[in-house]
Amino acid sequence: MGLDIRWPIGLLFSLVGLLMTIYGIATNGDAAMYHRSLDININLIWGIVLLIFGVFMLLMANRHKNDPGSPDRK
Amino acid sequence: MQVALSWLDYLILLTYTGFVVGIGFALKKYMKSSSDFLTSGRSLPTWVTGLAFISANLGALELVGMAASGAKYGIIQANFYWVGAIPAMVFLAVFMMPFYYGSKARSVPEYLKMRFDERVRTLNSISFAVMTVFSSGISMNALAKLLHLLLGWNYNISLWICSAVVLLYVLKGGLTSAIYTEVLQFFMIVLGFAPVVYLGLKDVGGYHAMTELLKGVATNPASLHLREAGITYRPDAWTSVWKPLLAGPAYNTMGVDWFAMVFGLGFVLSFGYWCTNFLVVQRAMAARNMTAARNTPLVASVPKMFFPALVILPGMIAVALMAIPDKGYRIPAPILDNAVYAKAMAVVAADASAPADQAFNDVSAAVGKKMDAAKVAALVKDYAANPLPPDVFQDRLWNAVAEYDYDGTILSLVKRYCPPGLLGLALTGLLASFMSGMAGNVTAFNTVWTYDLYQAYFAPNRSDSHYMRMGQMMTVVGILLSIACAYFASLYNNAMDVIQLVFAFVNAPLFATFVLGMFWKRTTGTGAFLGLIFGTAASCVVHAVTISEGNPPGMKGGYLGVLHTFPSEMAQNFWLAICAFLICLILTAGISLATQRTKSDEELKGLVYSLTPKIRDEGTPWIQRPAVLGTVLIAVCVLLNFIFR
Predict the structure, then answer these.
(1) In a domain, A70, yes or no
(2) What pLDDT does B383 receive?
(3) How does residue A66 score in pLDDT terms, banded at 50, 70 and 90?
(4) Could you give all domains of chain B from N- to C-terminal order, each with its CATH number?
């Protein structure tokens, strides 16, 4: 199929990761909010994880942009 | 049980929805023929079909149900993965995919037509089509109910909006859309729930601390109201997979014997589902070549093997948390009606000066559930001293209920640990899996209807664009039928239980038909057809004359008399499947020998093992050879079983 699924995956998780990271930075030190996540700023940490994953997917998609397909393509 | 979502949570939810609809529109221009729409034009890479394969199976009900079972039974539930899935997935990849993919069949029923005849195909396609519509309806009903309970959304609006989103992207992008969103959902679920599991595990003090806590629970499960008073298990009942199972049905939380587990679940039910269910096999059929198709279930089995950490572990964490009183956690109680609260409030007020046990009995009767004696006594005492406001009263009464709504386990953990942001991510994962579950069922339904029923009976030899339009129309019809089934499920809960029971009867003998058909060229159409019918009938009969301990004869079996009592419902189900399978196997073989073959060796080429040239994959690198990969995967699976024995 013409659309490489890695583009939407990469974009979605970069975007959500970015949102969570920014929110995590903005709310850093909000003890009341992060009490439930055991005093860990989970938004910041997990936002960065999602961002890394998203960017990795985008890089993979970009690398295979001009690929006609892997060798086993029929 | 309600949670309030912040703007960020809504934003994450909307972003996801925007993306899935966007994928549908982006794929629209590639939908040129019915095969593009219904079978993805056999063009997708392995990792995509592999993740979709596992995603189609990891429905939201599984996510909710596995955490529930993790709490109820403990790690023994992992048998549904390590025994009840991996071997069958490897078998599908190595031995069965060559026939499904190589025969160019567009669906599993179509393979049955090529191998046997039109009767077998019709039987299978009708039961499958009905089943997909119902399971999609059941899951949508659960979704709308959940959104209502958790977020206070209107049942009707959630049901129709979620269905409309699914309709939009499936109608635009067909099977490819469904598969792509399944891949998206896979990552959403894994990345959304992993932090919740991590936080839960950290909260109980790590895996080792959790097992220590669960050992205490296992020897006295009544202390947490997990079992009736007096029932005790071995200390490792919640934390070992094999030792309690090998000790016998009385010693493990499921009440099953190892033979029923290995043969009934691990062979009959598991092979019957993974190797014959078109919903999952369709994903592998969409792969771009034979190697990719065969490797699809193998790619899928890697995450499948480790899913217990994501879906069963939360249930075990929940029980361990309850064993630490300071944590103030409990698995939620069943929802009570407002009328029940009003009635209970009157009773509590009236019994202010009554003896403690009388007050306890009165309150239990008013609520209609088992209650915790100490909490009821405290509530009555506090209420007598100073009448509590209704919301505080309701909260305390609900907390005093000594029964659990196990299906609420996973969400109660999400609610406990997720701040705004992460909450949106986890809920989006859950919503995503409900929606992609519907999409998966609908795409399987429209293919089976269009190719196996419509093209076969109503309009053969029409143009391809005619079938494409039919496929699109059936997408709409499938979604409308699912919605109808969702309403039906919400109104007639008991009828739904009967329907699911019937599906279990139909599915139990299925693998016998396939295994004989694929590996014995002598199997005839008549043998397969009658074998299937009598196999299904056999499971009805076995169900009618057996019962499990503690159940009265009726819906749960034994309504024609009780010849045998199983220690648990699960044992009854496993043995039922074993009986149906064996009867189908014997009858199919017997009738086949007594009837004439209708297909020559030449016609069966590519459909039966002994008549199909072996696939030579010496040319492919070893890392892509299904037999090699399958062996490695089985070895890892055995290792996991050994570690958690």
Answers:
(1) no
(2) 87
(3) low
(4) 7-218+271-323+420-491 (1.20.1730.10), 333-403 (no CATH), 496-613 (no CATH)
First to last CA, chain B: 36
Q: How many CB pairs under 8 A join A and B?
A: 103
CA angle B528, B531, B536 (to 5 degrees): 125
Distance (Å) from the C-alpha of residue B19 to the closest C-alpha of chain A?
7
Cα separations in angstroms, B528 against A11, B120, B264, B513, B593: 49, 7, 21, 6, 11
Domain presence at residue A56: yes
Residues of chain B with pLDDT under 50: none
Contact B419 A46 (CB under 8 A): no
In this prediction, residue A67 carries a pLDDT of 62
Query: Distance of CA B396 to CAs B321, B344, B345, B350, B393, Å?
Result: 19, 12, 11, 17, 5
* A72 assigned to some structural domain: no
**pLDDT (0 to 100) of residue A1:** 56
Residue B411 to residue B151: CA distance in whole angstroms: 12
How far apart are the C-alpha atoms of B284 and B274, rounded to whole Å?
11
Cα–Cα distance between B483 and B143 in angstroms, integer? 12
Question: Is A31 an 8 Å CB contact of chain B?
Answer: no
The residue segments making up the domain with residue A45 are 6-63
User: What is the distance between the alpha carbons of residues B98 and B89, in angstroms, rounded to a whole number?
Assistant: 14
Distance CA B132, CA B143 (A): 16
Cα separation, A25 vs A47, whole angstroms = 10
Q: Where do we find the tokens 């895996």?
A: B207
Contact state of B422 with A33 under an 8 Å Cβ cutoff:
no
Q: State the DSSP H helix or E strand holding residue B132, giving kind and residue range, or none if neither.
A: helix B118-151
Instruction: Report yes or no: B397 and B338 within 8 Å, Cβ to Cβ.
Output: no
Supply the pLDDT for residue B619. Answer: 76
Distance of CA B132 to the CA centre of its chain: 13
Here the tokens at position B188 are 């959403």
Q: Is the CB of A9 less than 8 angstroms away from the CB of B23?
A: no
Contact B272, B263 (CB under 8 A): no
Between the alpha carbon of residue B466 and those of residues B63, B286, B455, B462, the distances in Å are: 39, 21, 10, 6
pLDDT in tens, B573-612: 899 999 999 999 999 999 999 999 888 888 888 899 888 8
- Does residue A52 lie in a domain region? yes
Q: How far apart are the first and last CA of chain A?
A: 13
pLDDT of residue A64: 82
C-alpha closest to that of B603 among B100, B96, B92, B103: B103
Q: What is the pLDDT of residue B623?
A: 80
**Closest CB from A1, A8, A23 relative to B43:** A1
Q: How far apart are CA B528 and CA B534, in angstroms?
A: 10
Neighbours of A26 (CB within 10 A): 11
Q: Do B184 and A8 touch (CB under 8 A)?
A: yes
The two tokens of residue B238 are 């919640």
Helices and strands per DSSP (H, E), number in chain B: 30, 2
**pTM of the predicted protein model:** 0.92
Q: Are B283 and B518 a contacting pair, CB within 8 Å?
A: no
B102 touches chain A (CB under 8 A): no
From A12, A19, A33, residue closest to B419, measured CB to CB: A33
**Cβ of B293 under 8 Å from any chain A Cβ?**
no
Please indicate if any CB of chain A lies within 8 Å of the CB of B243.
no
DSSP H or E run through B88: helix B86-91
Query: Each residue of A5-60: pLDDT tens digit?
Result: 999 999 999 999 999 999 999 999 888 889 999 999 999 999 999 999 999 999 99
Q: How many domains does chain A have?
A: 1
Listed residue (B68, B110, B107) closest to B331, CA to CA: B68
* Model pLDDT, residue A73: 37
Rounded distance between C-alpha atoms, residue B211 and residue B331, angstroms: 18
pLDDT band at A71 (very low <50, low <70, confident <90, very high): very low
